[in-house]
Specification:
Two copies of one chain form a homodimer. The first copy, chain A, has 16 helices and 18 strands. With about 575 residues, chain A is of the alpha/beta class. In chain A, strand 2, helix 2 and strand 3 form a beta-alpha-beta unit. The N and C termini of chain A lie far apart (about 70 Å). The interface between A and B is large, with 107 and 107 residues. Chains A, B: Pathway: Cofactor biosynthesis; NAD(+) biosynthesis; NAD(+) from deamido-NAD(+) (L-Gln route): step 1/1.
């Protein structure tokens, strides 16, 4: 029995773009064939994109996906590539509703499944439906899919390959347990293939490889883990595909945040005489290994990947945003320039009478460094027109300035077709240090919505240092990083007039929002009770306002942490004890 | 064995407002006791409000709910009402994660449950955890709760009462099946009590009573169905509690859309000799029956209930909206006046150079009829200030006017504390006949987001006729109902310049959006292919734009139909075949 060459195609798909995903599958299969691969594996729900949410329930969409799988098979056969085994993800059907409550709810008789199909010689040979349907955090799979119940082992070039999907390996007692045994001839499986759509979270790489190593030991065979890459809506997929051996060692791995074809040879099977225990254990070869990224680089590239995917997949080529001279808009513009090119970024300085000279200078300097289209649009004439009619004071006046800037950006977007993006960061959005419908919160995407203020500074410094290391000009003006943050909506205003220092604020926010701790737990951590009360009150109030006006960007860690769904009207406030 | 007097307390709770819900439970228990009831039953999740979504995952919230249940028990005992059995809904805990995937996801060790508790003589006597957790449409219960596995039958005044929660009766094979048999003494249960949080859908009343009748026949005992009432976020609960006998007849019922205490006597048990079959079957008494509402009245009152709940539960006392003189803002203002009183409604006419005289007259006339605070705020000075700087043309200019109106409303809201509401209707939002961030789409709540344009006219006519019948002045000026609809953003513009006639449009929208039909099914219904292509293209494009800018009001039938979650970036378009 010869070696089996496998190729893991870590590609970037787009939800709903069946034709485009099909073309990509054909292209990468040709590449894998060119590398001599016997089998090429694609990520979870390759044909349909992932996550498809309620699109799975539309019958015409499912019909199109089924036709596309047959097209892939036929096309490869026509091209003489029918001998390459292709394993890809798509939407299947369970035939009947899986649970009585779904039947009672009027769900369609043919509930969809999250399916892997095996294509060979012009045909769809076998199918596997994902058993474990995650329905927590950002996942809604139990909502839309029926679970599979059967395991799948296919023979490829005489080797037994088990196939499962993503969440199936995240629990003990899953379909893996049925793959660990030996068949009648005394053989177990030779390889476990896992198709994944695993969203990026900080530091998740090790969790994945550790978990896969446990499964590899259980089935006594290598685990090949292929993950998707790219930004999709508010999720970021980081790739980082790998093969891990039954002894827990990572044998080969793809880099994060880029498409990649990872080729690896499963060695020939040793003879069954080895089962006596006298022969040496199989030695698995080691391929290329992607070096780990610095934590700040990892987060920075996750932000770039998310934004680039959002812009491109929504059919935009350019972005417009307000440049205040502050750190948030400076970092957001830099991310945008790295995502789609500085020449496709329009930065608009919209000074008011409260804007400092250095702010305007810093905004201009930033745009120049990025090669962005820079414009200055004073807001005084419009603010004066509103004030002549409405005579607003205090916060209402501050908000008016902020909203006039929002209207300017939307008008430029309407006229020229750029996507408006919002530079609001997680800390200020969490405590409500923002105006609904202002230039910091309107728009289609808020690249920093999951990045707290402390991290904003860290990412800016990392990006500038990376430029210096590469012999380039650092993109972000030093004074944008070092000056005290201010919204500049009234004279001499700084963020710390109304907020605790950001390093402290961010620690409390992390405990209260990300870890859902209550006041008692926060105090037990040793935080000052006054700070805890202030932050909890601000967050509760801001979250309430945001839910009342369901139009601001979502804040809570969609990409990097837990999704949270909360009732709009909840009167719940963290009790004082 | 004497009669058992039961009271169904159809009350309006608020999510998160544990203290307020507790007070209401005490108040209605006193009322029930005053009526001589032995048992009072409250709706699903009474103490916590419903639906609580991810709030269930916050430990400090759960602790507060558990303390409140003990408080209710102790307080009733102190008041000498410990002999009244109280059945109410709250959040429980399952002790351990129910499924391995949840355990793997890092879910808390004590997953919450959707619980009913039985309180008597100062103690929580028994608990039942909902078995069937709906996770489709507007429901997310599998996401947050662990399912119960045990049935519950409690003895109240010597009678066997089975208790289940909402979805538990919606399927065959649920916990009901274990309640249908006879116990060792040859008795089955005497009554099945169902606690509900069943959202309003048009015509759902009959579905509920038919279903409950089936379960009553199965357990051979009456089913007492208590439902919550009131608006909560984007859901409307209509009440309509009832008791149905095992022969399928509705024995008594509460009206929809109001709080109500429905008292009914379960007759004394006939002797066991009856089991010989020779004795007559139990005769169940008939109480008051609420007459059914006219379909337009039902929808109208659902809209009023939803809006009233949203305003009050979010802590507002007044509303501001733009009045264009058109039918949508006229109906929205009338709904608002019915929800919170005309004196609490601020209507702002914001004429531009394209506004017709009759529009301004109609807006003023409407405000006068409603007793609303009426203001005129021309937008020309602000539009001219923007145009002096930006020189916009075409759609960008139209959108500018619309957005300036949005800023005016938000400024008035900031200054005076009113909630901004949006008058956009379902048809125009569905086809994108609206501007992002304009006066028709900004705000916290869009009362007509689930009402198509044909229905808008029908509701307006119904409301005016109802006023005439009551000898009152019809609130909506006749010309707002009869004139051709127009956005008045350019000279002579009407909706039908760019849209099919609304009656036809609404039929296609219903099939395409509500029933998720594809192009093939639409053509098979006999719709003109040209109209189908136009509508499908408009909807796909509008939905895409709306998802790109996740800030407009949600459109698809949250209150009256299916919730739909779709990926923002989906490239899927209904194919031409």
């Amino acid at each position: 029995m010869a070696e089996l060459r496998i190729a893991l195609a870590q590609i970037d798909t787009c939800v709903g773009a069946i034709d485009q995903n099909t073309a990509k599958i054909l292209e990468w299969t040709r590449r894998a064939a060119g590398e001599g691969a016997h089998v090429v594996a694609f990520p979870e729900m390759t044909l349909t994109g992932y996550p498809i949410e309620d699109l799975a329930l539309r019958a015409s969409f499912r019909r199109a996906a089924w036709a596309a799988a047959a097209d892939v098979a036929a096309q490869l056969e026509r091209e003489g590539l029918g001998g390459v085994t292709v394993v890809l993800g798509t939407v299947g059907t369970a035939g009947t509703p899986d649970t009585p409550e779904r039947a009672a709810s009027g769900a369609p008789a043919d509930l969809p499944t999250n399916r892997a199909v095996v294509i060979q010689h012009g045909e769809v040979l076998a199918a596997y439906d994902k058993h474990h349907l995650p329905n927590y955090g950002v996942f809604d799979e139990f909502r839309i899919f029926a679970p599979g119940t059967e395991p799948l082992v296919v023979e490829i070039e005489g080797r037994a390959v088990g196939i499962v999907i993503c969440e199936d390996i995240w629990q003990d007692g899953g379909p893996i347990t049925t793959l660990g045994g030996l068949d009648e001839a005394g053989h177990g499986i030779d390889l476990l293939l896992v198709l994944n759509g695993s969203p990026y979270e900080e530091g998740k790489g090790h969790v994945r490889t550790d978990l896969a190593a446990r499964r590899a030991a259980e089935v006594d065979a290598p685990v090949a883990y292929v993950n998707m890459v790219g930004g999709q809506d508010d999720l970021v997929f980081d790739g980082g595909s790998f093969v891990v051996g039954p002894d827990g060692s990572v044998l080969t791995s793809s880099p994060q945040f880029v498409e990649d074809l990872l080729v690896w040879d499963l060695p020939a099977r040793t003879s069954s005489a080895d089962l006596t225990g006298t022969a040496p254990a199989t030695v698995y070869p080691t391929g290329r290994i992607a070096p780990p990224l610095h934590p700040d680089e990892e987060v920075y590239r996750a932000c770039v990947t998310g934004l680039a995917g959002y812009v491109r997949k929504n059919g935009f080529r350019s972005i417009v945003l307000g440049l205040s001279g502050g750190i948030d808009s400076a970092l957001t513009a830099t991310l945008a320039a790295d995502a789609i090119g500085g020449q496709n970024v329009v930065g608009v300085s919209m000074p008011s009478s409260y804007s400092s000279e250095h702010s305007k200078d810093d905004a201009a300097d930033l745009a120049k460094r990025l090669g962005a289209d820079y414009r200055v649009q004073p807001i005084a004439p419009m603010v004066e027109a509103f004030q002549g009619e409405l005579a607003l004071e205090g916060v209402a006046e501050e908000n008016l300035q902020a909203r006039v800037r929002g209207v300017v950006l939307m008008a430029i977007s309407n006229r020229e077709g750029h996507l408006v993006i919002a530079p609001g960061n997680k800390s200020e959005l969490a405590v409500g240090y923002a105006t609904i419908y202002d230039a910091g919160s309107i728009g289609g995407y808020a690249p920093l919505k999951d990045v707290d203020k402390s991290r904003v500074w860290a990412l800016a410094r990392w990006r500038n240092d990376a430029a210096l290391d590469a012999g380039e000009i650092p993109p972000i003006p030093e004074s944008s990083i070092t000056k005290p943050p201010s919204a500049e909506l009234r004279p001499g205003q700084t963020d710390q007039d109304s907020l605790p220092p950001y390093d402290l604020l961010d620690e409390v926010l992390d405990a209260y929002i990300e870890h859902a701790e209550g006041r008692a737990e926060l105090l037990a951590r040793g935080f000052d009770p006054e700070v805890v009360d202030k932050v909890v009150t601000l967050v509760d109030r801001a979250e309430w306002k945001r839910r009342q006006y369901p139009l601001g960007p979502k804040v809570t860690s969609l990409a990097f942490g837990r999704d949270r769904r909360l009732p709009v009207t909840s009167r719940w406030r963290e009790p004082a004890e």
